[in-house]
Amino acid sequence: MIMARTFTITSYGKTKEYPESQRKKMIKEFETAMLCCDGSEAERYRNIYGDLVAGEKECMDHRTSIES
In Å, what is the CA distance from 12 to each residue of 1, 3, 16, 48? Predict the structure, then answer.
């Protein structure tokens, strides 16, 4: 059985799954969001944006100390 490729975005502790075909759309949405905010909110969007652009399967709004 062929499984559809997906990725997840976790923000504020909630995770949502998206089909890979939505990645470009989400990159644009998070790019806009990060440019429209500042401070810690912009940092959250910047983390997700970076993961999306890098092609990560799990995109998160924060980094753990292990990943830092």
Answer: 33, 28, 11, 12
Residue 4: which H helix or E strand, with range?
none
Closest among 8, 6, 5, 22 to 61, alpha carbons compared: 8
Strands of 20-61 (E only): list them.
58-60
Q: How much is the pTM?
A: 0.84
Measure the CA–CA gap between 48 and 30, rounded to whole angstroms: 7
Residue 58: is it exposed, middle or buried by C-beta count within 10 angstroms (0-12/13-18/19+)? exposed
Q: Report pLDDT digits (tens) over 7-32.
A: 999 999 999 999 999 999 999 999 99
- Are 50 and 37 contacting, i.e. CB atoms less than 8 angstroms apart? no
